[in-house]
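Late entry, magnesium ion complex.
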Amino acid sequence: MTLPLLLLDVDGPLNPYAAPKTRRPEGYDTHRLLPTWWADRQARYSGARAKPLRVWLNPAYGPELLGLPYELVWATGWMGEANTHIGPNLGLPELPYIQWTDLFGEDPDGLHWKTRDVVAWADGRPFVWVDDELGPQDTAWIAAHHPAPALTFHVNPRIGLLAADFVALREWAVAA
Ligand SMILES: [Mg+2]
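Prediction complete; structure with ligand written out below:
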Protein backbone atom coordinates (compact mmCIF):
# COMPACT_ATOMS: atom_id res chain seq x y z
CA MET A 1 0.00 0.00 0.00
CA THR A 2 1.30 3.44 -0.89
CA LEU A 3 1.02 5.99 1.86
CA PRO A 4 -0.33 9.47 1.17
CA LEU A 5 2.19 12.30 1.08
CA LEU A 6 2.49 14.80 3.90
CA LEU A 7 3.89 17.98 2.36
CA LEU A 8 5.39 20.04 5.14
CA ASP A 9 6.00 23.73 5.29
CA VAL A 10 8.48 24.84 7.98
CA ASP A 11 7.75 28.48 8.82
CA GLY A 12 4.28 28.58 10.26
CA PRO A 13 3.45 24.94 10.96
CA LEU A 14 6.73 23.81 12.58
CA ASN A 15 8.18 27.22 13.43
CA PRO A 16 5.37 29.41 14.84
CA TYR A 17 7.34 32.49 13.85
CA ALA A 18 4.42 34.90 14.22
CA ALA A 19 3.87 34.24 17.93
CA PRO A 20 4.75 37.29 20.06
CA LYS A 21 8.52 37.59 20.32
CA THR A 22 8.60 37.27 24.08
CA ARG A 23 6.22 34.30 24.19
CA ARG A 24 7.91 31.27 22.78
CA PRO A 25 5.23 28.55 22.70
CA GLU A 26 5.61 25.84 25.30
CA GLY A 27 7.69 22.82 24.31
CA TYR A 28 9.72 24.72 21.72
CA ASP A 29 13.50 25.31 21.59
CA THR A 30 15.11 28.40 20.08
CA HIS A 31 17.57 27.96 17.20
CA ARG A 32 19.52 30.65 15.37
CA LEU A 33 19.98 29.48 11.80
CA LEU A 34 21.38 31.04 8.68
CA PRO A 35 20.11 29.20 5.61
CA THR A 36 21.13 30.41 2.17
CA TRP A 37 17.62 31.56 1.23
CA TRP A 38 17.51 33.85 4.28
CA ALA A 39 21.01 35.24 3.70
CA ASP A 40 20.14 35.94 0.04
CA ARG A 41 16.90 37.62 0.99
CA GLN A 42 18.57 39.90 3.49
CA ALA A 43 21.37 40.74 1.09
CA ARG A 44 18.77 41.72 -1.50
CA TYR A 45 16.74 43.95 0.79
CA SER A 46 19.24 45.45 3.20
CA GLY A 47 22.68 44.78 1.74
CA ALA A 48 23.83 44.24 5.30
CA ARG A 49 25.60 41.19 6.59
CA ALA A 50 23.01 38.49 7.17
CA LYS A 51 21.79 37.93 10.69
CA PRO A 52 20.68 34.45 11.65
CA LEU A 53 17.00 33.71 11.68
CA ARG A 54 15.34 32.85 14.97
CA VAL A 55 13.56 29.53 14.56
CA TRP A 56 11.38 27.85 17.18
CA LEU A 57 11.10 24.08 16.88
CA ASN A 58 9.39 21.52 19.07
CA PRO A 59 11.62 18.42 19.30
CA ALA A 60 8.58 16.24 20.09
CA TYR A 61 7.20 16.92 16.61
CA GLY A 62 9.76 14.86 14.70
CA PRO A 63 8.66 11.60 16.37
CA GLU A 64 5.00 12.69 16.06
CA LEU A 65 5.41 13.19 12.32
CA LEU A 66 7.30 9.95 11.83
CA GLY A 67 4.50 8.12 13.62
CA LEU A 68 1.88 9.30 11.14
CA PRO A 69 0.85 7.03 8.25
CA TYR A 70 2.36 9.30 5.59
CA GLU A 71 5.43 9.69 3.49
CA LEU A 72 6.97 12.96 4.69
CA VAL A 73 8.15 15.55 2.16
CA TRP A 74 9.53 19.05 2.74
CA ALA A 75 7.43 21.68 0.98
CA THR A 76 9.22 24.76 2.23
CA GLY A 77 11.31 27.68 1.08
CA TRP A 78 14.13 25.99 3.01
CA MET A 79 14.14 23.30 0.30
CA GLY A 80 17.20 21.05 0.79
CA GLU A 81 18.33 23.11 3.76
CA ALA A 82 15.38 21.74 5.70
CA ASN A 83 17.39 18.52 5.79
CA THR A 84 20.50 20.16 7.22
CA HIS A 85 18.97 22.87 9.46
CA ILE A 86 15.48 21.73 10.51
CA GLY A 87 15.26 17.93 10.35
CA PRO A 88 18.18 17.21 12.70
CA ASN A 89 16.70 19.53 15.35
CA LEU A 90 13.45 17.56 15.21
CA GLY A 91 14.99 14.10 15.00
CA LEU A 92 13.85 13.63 11.40
CA PRO A 93 15.87 11.69 8.84
CA GLU A 94 16.72 13.19 5.48
CA LEU A 95 13.47 13.67 3.54
CA PRO A 96 12.68 14.37 -0.09
CA TYR A 97 11.95 18.02 -0.78
CA ILE A 98 10.23 20.01 -3.48
CA GLN A 99 12.49 22.22 -5.56
CA TRP A 100 10.44 25.32 -6.38
CA THR A 101 10.19 26.73 -9.87
CA ASP A 102 9.84 30.29 -8.59
CA LEU A 103 10.74 30.69 -4.91
CA PHE A 104 8.61 33.46 -3.35
CA GLY A 105 7.42 34.36 -6.85
CA GLU A 106 4.12 35.82 -7.92
CA ASP A 107 1.55 33.62 -9.62
CA PRO A 108 -0.34 35.14 -12.57
CA ASP A 109 -3.64 33.76 -11.22
CA GLY A 110 -3.09 34.68 -7.60
CA LEU A 111 -2.23 31.19 -6.43
CA HIS A 112 0.40 30.59 -3.83
CA TRP A 113 3.86 30.31 -5.43
CA LYS A 114 4.03 26.68 -4.27
CA THR A 115 0.66 25.46 -5.49
CA ARG A 116 1.40 24.41 -9.09
CA ASP A 117 4.67 22.74 -8.08
CA VAL A 118 2.95 20.87 -5.24
CA VAL A 119 0.41 19.36 -7.62
CA ALA A 120 3.07 18.51 -10.20
CA TRP A 121 5.29 16.91 -7.56
CA ALA A 122 2.44 14.86 -6.04
CA ASP A 123 1.80 13.49 -9.54
CA GLY A 124 -1.61 12.04 -8.80
CA ARG A 125 -0.86 10.69 -5.31
CA PRO A 126 -3.11 11.57 -2.36
CA PHE A 127 -1.61 14.30 -0.22
CA VAL A 128 -2.07 16.66 2.65
CA TRP A 129 -0.34 20.00 2.33
CA VAL A 130 0.38 21.69 5.65
CA ASP A 131 1.10 25.42 5.30
CA ASP A 132 0.28 28.77 6.90
CA GLU A 133 -0.19 30.70 3.64
CA LEU A 134 -2.81 28.69 1.80
CA GLY A 135 -5.96 30.39 0.58
CA PRO A 136 -9.31 29.16 -0.76
CA GLN A 137 -8.06 29.79 -4.31
CA ASP A 138 -5.30 27.20 -3.76
CA THR A 139 -7.75 24.63 -2.40
CA ALA A 140 -10.07 25.19 -5.38
CA TRP A 141 -7.26 24.98 -7.92
CA ILE A 142 -5.95 21.75 -6.41
CA ALA A 143 -9.44 20.22 -6.43
CA ALA A 144 -9.72 21.04 -10.14
CA HIS A 145 -6.23 19.87 -11.15
CA HIS A 146 -5.35 16.97 -8.86
CA PRO A 147 -7.10 13.66 -9.59
CA ALA A 148 -6.60 12.10 -6.12
CA PRO A 149 -7.77 13.11 -2.63
CA ALA A 150 -5.97 16.18 -1.35
CA LEU A 151 -6.33 18.25 1.78
CA THR A 152 -5.02 21.77 2.22
CA PHE A 153 -4.31 22.04 5.91
CA HIS A 154 -3.98 25.62 7.06
CA VAL A 155 -1.96 26.30 10.21
CA ASN A 156 -1.90 29.61 12.07
CA PRO A 157 1.73 30.84 12.16
CA ARG A 158 1.16 32.38 15.59
CA ILE A 159 0.39 28.92 16.96
CA GLY A 160 1.97 26.23 14.80
CA LEU A 161 0.86 22.62 14.72
CA LEU A 162 -1.05 21.39 17.76
CA ALA A 163 -1.70 17.94 19.20
CA ALA A 164 -5.22 18.07 17.75
CA ASP A 165 -3.74 18.60 14.28
CA PHE A 166 -1.77 15.37 14.50
CA VAL A 167 -5.01 13.58 15.38
CA ALA A 168 -6.77 15.16 12.38
CA LEU A 169 -3.89 14.24 10.05
CA ARG A 170 -4.00 10.63 11.21
CA GLU A 171 -7.76 10.46 10.69
CA TRP A 172 -7.51 11.86 7.17
CA ALA A 173 -4.87 9.31 6.15
CA VAL A 174 -6.94 6.44 7.51
CA ALA A 175 -10.03 7.65 5.60
CA ALA A 176 -8.21 8.54 2.34
MG1 LIG B 1 5.06 29.13 5.82
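The domain at 5-18+58-175 is CATH 3.40.50 (Rossmann fold). Will revisit in the morning.
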